[in-house]
Design brief:
Neurolysin, domain 3; about 725 residues; 29 helices; alpha+beta; globular; Collagenase (Catalytic Domain); five-stranded mixed beta sheet
Amino acid sequence: MFTFSNRLSAGMMALLLTACTSPDGGNKSMTDSALDAKDQKNNTLLAPWTGPHGGLPPFDRVKVSDFKAALETGMEEKRAELKAIAENPEAPNFENTIARLEDSGRALNRVLTVYHIWSGTMSSPEFQAIEKEMASPLAAFEDEIIQNEKLFKRLEAVYQSPALKTLSPEQQRLAWKYYTEWVRAGAKLDAADKQKLSAINQKLAKAFTTFRQNLLADESTFILLENEKDLAGLPDALIKSAAAAAETHGAKGKWAITNTRSSVEPFLTYSSRADLREKVWRAYVNRGDNGDSHDNNQLIPEILQLRAERAKLLGYETHAHWRLENAMARTPEAAMALMQEVWKPAVARVREEVKDMLPLAQREEGRKVIEPWDYRYYAEKVRKQKYDLSENEVKPYFQLDSLREGMFWVAGELLGFAFAPVEGLPVAHPDVRVWEVKDKASGRFIGLWYFDPYAREGKRSGAWMNAYRSQEKFRGDVTTIVSNNSNFIKGAPGEPVLISLSDARTLFHEFGHALHGLSSNVNYPLLAGTAVPRDYVEFPSQLLEEWLLTPQVLSRFALHYKTRKPMPEALVAKIKKASKFNQGFETVEYLASALVDMKFHLKGAQKIDPDAFEKETLAELGMPKEIVMRHRPTQFAHVFASDGYSAGYYSYLWADTLSASAFEAFMEAKGPYDKTVAERLKKHVLSVGNSVDPVEGFRSFRGKAPGSAALMRKRGFPVSKN
């Protein structure tokens, strides 16, 4: 999952936070200069980042109590900068308008970077109080920028000027990006409608914050296992991590299954206690849906109504049509067509998978049906039966630290990157480590990679990538800072962290986002790195997953955590033979969420009861009763904790059409490490950010537009003849 470092409303977030930090304070914007005299000494969040590597986030000096003042001062300083641009007596041109916009707000951007790191990984009650208080002011400030008529008229004049055609392609793209996003965000509305829009956005900001904090509260709960009988079927590594989690929660001598995916899914896979599987499963799937103070059911219809009202105000049929206008899919109908094409064969595959499970369930527990909390458990048994393969056999070879080194090696082979650990840099939490990234051939410094791998209280669940600082050449050669964040369960001291094949894929996936950011080579930060349409940003990340099971990675880095011997060839062969196993479950679980997301947002202003809508929609789709959505509405943070993936959860499937086709390009050449194809990927996709239309960028890389055939082959589904 990709997450902007600053989570504000879709489209406009990037415009508010375009500028990245000056490399060393030498290239100062007006904000920085003003702050030198006033606030820099008193609030480290506002000051230019100092230190090595072009400056570093001051994680070691963060005080939660500083955030509110820093945000307010940062907004005030940016407000002054924008006023100067809007009231410039000179005729508007690219340099005095768009370039100045791109250079504005650097102090605010620094504050928001750290602010959202705290929101996602260090959220405390003290911080959450500030987050609630500042949600509306931040949204209002965003609208204030867009609704500045003098500023927009200058921007529009530059965009419509014949002189635009004399600029570089990247400058033209930047002007297009500013103009279209401002128009889409309401810059052309009349005064009354602008006021309505601002009120909507402030209400949404509050609702998003509450949704996110409610979910975090439910994910901070756990199921306590009281005795050794409760551990039946669990592998040693999971037992040890559960014991460590229990000790963390003050229950030493017992075992805790925390209410997050990284803890729940292994338990559901291995526990032979059906009663405990059901208990853990219900706690997990009912996050945000328990009728208590953290219930999200009332927020969802509020968010959907506000989005529908905003879309209508902006001149769009629905929120989905607004969101997809500049995406690769362009229309909800195109996204729905792809999802529906894949849905039918995926459901058919589920029927086959359940048929394989039933005899085992009947024999072991007298079951005549597979319940949702049984699916992973019996799927693992079928895998063992059909392929003589179990996750327990694989996990001893998938040690987190070793796989991390494997990712570094792949980055070196494909992109020429070299990673070296850096000690002593400030970090937000002691678990976080930092690596510097250089070009292997020239030794040129490229950027920093932060890794925050473990779950903890106050950290949201899942896995994601952030950009702490965007690459740019606009104001000096500014290098990027990126991070990967996971929620692996930390073992006891000295114990290695062993992860599943699925978790290993996720690890590579998120690193693909990081490599996208590190490869950036553009001039303007608004267009840098991963700042691309949502259904394109998942393409490089999903593509990198393919390198996990290449022989070169497995032989070097899939080493047994005790013997340090590489994974046996026989085991590798079994993994590859089973590579399309359980694709029905994985595809249906995901697609159900993506389809419900889109259908939510195609309903326009219709009032919706989330639970009823979920049941009715899944029934209409023919959802297998043995599976639930990967993200039920009340816990669907992708969609309801921000505008980020709203009407856009389909993006993973859309991007997988690109990644499947792209990997076939490697295989049609000399294989996964073909230098020529890798160079094309870097040149036309990874390095260009949003300076090139993604449709054209992909076509330049692949030589053709993608279809669904490669995707269907990848998942083992029948390829349509149409």
